[in-house]
Amino acid sequence: RGFRIEPGEIESALRCSPLVRDAVVVVRAVQPPGAPAGERAEEASAAPARLVAYVVPAEPSGAGLPVGELRLHLAGLLPPHMVPSVFVPLDRLPLTANGKTDRRALPAPGPAQAADGPRTAPRTDTERRIARIWSDVLGIEEVGADDNFFALGGDSILSMQVVSRLRRDGLHVATRDLFTHQTVAELATVVRAAPRRPGEGPVTGEVPLTPIQEWFLTTPRAAHHHFNQSALLELNGTPDLKALRAALAALTAHHDALRMRFTRDEHGWRQFNPPPADDPCVLVRHDVTGLSAADADAAMAKAADELHAGFDLARGPQLRAALFTGDPDRPAFLLLVAHHLVVDAVSWRILRDDLETAYRQALQGGPVTLGERGTSFREWSRRLAAHVAEGGLDHELPHWEQAVGADPAPPAPAPAPGSGPAATVSVELDEEDTTALLRAAPTAYRTRVNDVLLAALALALARWTGDDRVRLDLEGHGREDLLDGVDLSRTVGWFTTVYPVAVQVSDPGDLGPDRDWRSLVKSVRRQLRAVPGNGIGFGALRTFGPPEVRERLGAHAHGQVVFNYLGQWDARPETSDGGLVRTEHGSFGQDHDPRDPGSHPVEVVGAVQDGRLAFTWHHRPAVHDTATVRRVAEEFAEALRHLARHARGGR
Prior knowledge:
By secondary structure, the chain is an alpha+beta fold. It has 4 domains: 7-105, ANL, C-terminal domain (GMP Synthetase, Chain A, domain 3); 125-193, Non-ribosomal Peptide Synthetase Peptidyl Carrier Protein, Chain A; 205-373, Chloramphenicol Acetyltransferase (2-Layer Sandwich), CATH 3.30.559.10; 378-572 and 595-647, 2-Layer Sandwich (Chloramphenicol Acetyltransferase). It has helices at residues 7-15, 41-44, 67-75, 125-138, 156-168, 175-180, 184-188, 211-218, 241-254, 293-309, 345-363, 377-389, 397-404, 431-444, 449-465, 517-529, 536-544, 547-554, 626-647; strands at 20-29, 49-57, 86-89, 171-172, 192-193, 205-207, 228-235, 261-265, 268-273, 283-287, 319-325, 333-339, 423-428, 469-476, 497-504, 561-568, 581-584, 602-609, 612-619. It has a 6-stranded mixed beta sheet with strand order 13-19-18-16-14-15. A hairpin with a 2-residue loop joins strand 8 and strand 9 (268-273). Helix 4 (125-138) packs across helix 5 (156-168). Mean pLDDT is 85; it is low at 32-48, 111-119 and 413-419.
């Protein structure tokens, strides 16, 4: 999974335990639950690779291997990624004729789970709570104790949603725990009671700009105030207005970033957190009763565009809402709009859950409480700046200096005559290929779906440039486990990271079905794993580093193409249980000023909506003509379809 593993070090740590007489650790494929016995070797090779510990107990015991105690022992000696996820008890280790451990004779582990035995339903209250949250977040009806989060279609963004939901349920895990304990049963072994932070209230006062905020505010824009994100929510009937206003007020009081104010003086941009207002005045209501469907849609679109264009960074609020109600046969809609300076993709998942919780509580007439607070946006910004000042990221400098030196430019054909300032090209995969990439590909390629998408994109870009080495920028969620004691799983704010990568692609001329697609993914995965800290250090060093570092990294900070995969937006099923929201419809209205040129000449944004992977290629025809961008986008989609079919076992 991108971590460096030292099996010998793990074996030594195991042998230090008084519970262990001998042990050997290997990385090998572990069959998924329900796999038939005696499965052929070529089928077994597609099973997920796991870190397996074969343990000879110090004393024979009918109670089985004390897996929990062994995990605790190893956790005190090793980093989390070196704690095996599967333990197999043995009476003795098999030996060769020379007396060495015969690793080929080690028995195959059973279905992936915390200890041993067949697949079972969740057994403990903790396992049941974890399984319920996985089921809800992933949109899967039933989750077993030995099901693997990533094999079920989970990704890094959904993992943070799981951590957030667990925290609200009184269970505490770090995001990295999901990457090292990938089944329900495994994760249950590291769950602990959520820590309480008594006395913490709303943050007020000056807040340092984060790297992404500083970059946005110092980049020339058509209108800095008109750069938003939005979500259109279809409601279960007409909501109670008083309860809805109370719920929105609770969101702005609980999530400090939503109250931010931004001003500019001779020293540059500054942000400030005022205290919560009794009535933040974020909601306006529009009645479209009596209008035809077409006229009602037009009225909604006009009101949405006015809402988007009406933000004031200095006065706020940075969260605004519009409620659309009409005839009884037409559903009510709630449009939420927030300036991008205070939200990101992960934030919307938090806000969606908290809005539902707050509305239900307000409807009952009681106080609205949204649970314990995590690390505040201000604390994160301060600690990140201090970490850079203390030299905590200095070791990453050589990597980033080499990355920004890569050739950034695809060829730039002449602009198409009459092209507007911006244009889009969209490509979409069908449900079968989408399911294959989300469910089968992580197992078939032993990696995460992001790596598969990037392999296809790198190939398409290499074909465009005619060069087997391409430079592109990646967007990440930025909520990394970088600093001790930081929990951002329920913190709203703009944490996005943007960082450069240079990818070598072999034989870019081959886009055929018989290409060695597994080797392509493996190569790209290996190169991406060389990126330190999931890219968070690049922006941090460019923003908080010494002047000479800021100058070196800022000279070629952005390439021609940026890629952002937002994950699964439709994992949550429709609800009609009396809550506020029935379903979500994504963004609505003119999120950005149409004159805004964007951060890169080409921006590729992907997400899963309505069960289909879709990618939008935003571009500037003055730099890259639309016909060329469409061809590259279609070749990207073709590569993804080949990868999906290969993951299903076809050619």
